[in-house]
Amino acid sequence: MPLFDRTTRHAGDEIMSSSDAATRALSVTAVENDFVSGVYDKLAAVYDYTFGPGLHRGRIQAIQRMGIKPGDRLLEVGVGTGINVLLYPPESQVVGIDFSAPMLEKARERVARRGVRGVRLLEMDAADMKFPDGSFDIVYAPYVISVVPDPVRVAREMYRVCRPGGKVIILNHFRSQNVLGSRLERLISPLTLHIGFKSDLDLPGFLAQANLSPVSIEKVNFPRIWSLVTCIKEGPATPPSC
Ligand SMILES: C[S@@+](CC[C@H](N)C(=O)[O-])C[C@H]1O[C@@H](n2cnc3c(N)ncnc32)[C@H](O)[C@@H]1O
Q1: 80-95 confidence digits (pLDDT tens)
Q2: N or C: which end of the chain has fewer CB within 10 A?
Q3: Are the C-beta atoms of 66 and 215 separated by less than 8 Å?
């Protein structure tokens, strides 16, 4: 899979230089943690039906991309109702964080009901994680990065808590590179916020501002409008890009 080309043509037929991507707004919408957690507190009861099956192929592909080895320490950011917990190999050590207590409650129920071992669930803000640097082999954010108020800050936290040589994996919908699709996604973004996400998050801008250099970006799900972004964290002697 080719590396992302930061100088190709994108939405609006504008040439996006790296410097432009490094400073522009990533979405037309702004949101606060309280609003987001309020939305997910209400969604908890129906989440598995509304965001479950339609997004599941991407989740399975992400797990395959991780290449999890026995004993790997894995962090799932925005674990929600724990819809992914059965996908992890039983010998992995998984920590799931979320800031919505009702979503976490659903995750705890699932873990107990399905007898899942090796999964710890913690209430925590993804933008301010309480883990030391390099705590995990794999740090994974499925369908979260367009939900949080500050995606760049969350990505930096993910990078910080990943060990050098580990993987940072982001599964998400990003703004279309097609002119019409992009306009529509910007238009509806203030509305999609009310069901839990911004529809117009700018991938090139996000990568530039978070200083991420993915080793692959794959289109997943159907329609193929979601991206699976895989980064490898470089060693401490090298600049902070993955
Ligand atoms: C769309 S759900 C994704 C759930 C699950 N990862 C999946 O694959 O379906 C987004 C989750 O991120 C959580 N979330 C949003 N902002 C967060 C933050 N700043 N810190 C922790 N969790 C957050 C929400 O509460 C919600 O449970």
Answers
A1: 999 999 999 999 999 9
A2: N
A3: no
> Which letter does DSSP use for residue 26 in this model?
S
> Is the bond into 164 cis (omega within 30 degrees of 0)?
no
Within 10 angstroms of residue 7's Cβ, the number of other Cβ atoms is 11
CA of 117 to the centre of ligand 1 (A): 21
Lookup result for tokens 């797990």: 63
- For residue 149, which amino acid is it? P
> Which atom of ligand 1 has the smallest separation from the CA of 196?
1
User: Which whole-number Å values give the CA distances from 118 to 53, 85, 101, 174, in the listed order?
Assistant: 24, 10, 20, 32
What angle do the packed helices 33-43 and 101-113 form, to 10 degrees? 40
**Ligand 1 atom closest to the CA of 40, numbered from 1:** 25
Considering only CA atoms, which of 24, 29, 32 is closest in space to residue 6? 24
Give tens-digit pLDDT for 39-82: 999 999 999 999 999 999 999 999 999 999 999 999 999 999 99
For the sheet with 226-232, list strands across it: 119-123, 93-98, 73-77, 136-142, 162-173, 226-232, 216-220
User: What pLDDT shows up at residue 128?
Assistant: 98
Q: Specify the residue with its C-alpha closest to ligand 1, atom 16.
A: 148
